[in-house]
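Issue 218. Parser rejects a valid record. Input:
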Amino acid sequence: MKLQRKPLALLLLIGFGHALAATPAPELPPDEIVARVLRGNPGVQAAASQIRVEEANRSRLEAGNYEWNVRLGGQQRRVRPASAGDEQFNEWNAAIERPLRLPGKGALDAELGAGGVALAETAYGDTLHESSRSLLKLWFAWLKESASASQWREQAALLGKQNAAVTRRQQLGDAARLDSVQSEAALAQAEAQLAQASVRQQTAGEDLRRRFPGLPVVAPAALSEPAAIAGSEEEWVNALLEHSHELQLARQEAKQARVFAGRSSHDRLPDPTVGLQVSRERAGEERIIGAYVSIPLPGTARRASSDAALAMADGAARREAAAQQKITAEAVALYQSAQAAVASWQASRHAGERLGRAAEMTARAYQLGEGSLSDLLTARRLANEAQLASRLAQLDALELRYRLLLDAHRLWDLDKD
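Output the parser choked on:
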């Protein structure tokens, strides 16, 4: 069998598809729980209700405001002949009529109705996606506060052991009173920072629980190491544009505005009304059956409505172009930030490891009497700051990576469900 050679562009596209494939997310809640929580969000449910509104509106537009109308009337006729007395007749008339939708208008009305449903469905997807973004942001805000509290807890425990050792050395006459005071002050500062970090952690967790009830706020056992972003900037930007609900909304609104402008242009020619009428006159001596057509005469208002619809369509097209500009810029910035965050975390981790080793070496030197407590406290403080910065940089890199995957619909892609 002869093998066909695939074009290079297709191979690149397939390779990027694998790079975009949904990856495990150990730092995040389980996908099934996230899906249930997001779909239970009041804002998402309100957007789902709007779809039903637009489905009913589609039925209304397809049917049109072309209803049968019945007219009934009665009158009394009085005749005064020259040769006789007055004659009086009871008469009545009835008519049934209905406007007729001119050719072309029905198809446009159906298109407007379908467009309204499509807009509502896209708006629902956009609301769901924005809720996903909010959940991701709040989740990582809580993880960062948790990491900060954990780091200060470790620092306070380390300084507590150190303070006990300094106190013991002072009691044995091997340390000055100043060392004890400095050690106690450093411990007190760490405990104050721990108390503040714990409050921020509790506040962030409570905010997450209140905004997304049912979400288990449980810290992951460990954090994965951020990986470099596979794929080129152009590939990611195209993927983000393809799945951008905001851009889809702008495009659909522009399309809907064009259809509406076409419908308004058709309305410059009014719909006629046709009817049948019957009447009974002169107490039944005369019976009349007839048909009639009523056609409104178009005026300035219809032209103005059509011109306004055309201007709205032009504005919607320009908003679509602006939305594409904005979303493209945001996609580029997100990709570049996610790439830079990995390098930043690697540098920060390296600095934290080096300063941690320097602090351990300073601690051994102090134990051997070759250094001062002031040098040790400074080394401990620098190591703690670097290690905390490394933890936060790691979470920043993970958050940006997940945000990139989320916007490319490779994380929590609820549109497929």
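Fixed in the parser; the record now loads. The chain has nine helices and four strands.
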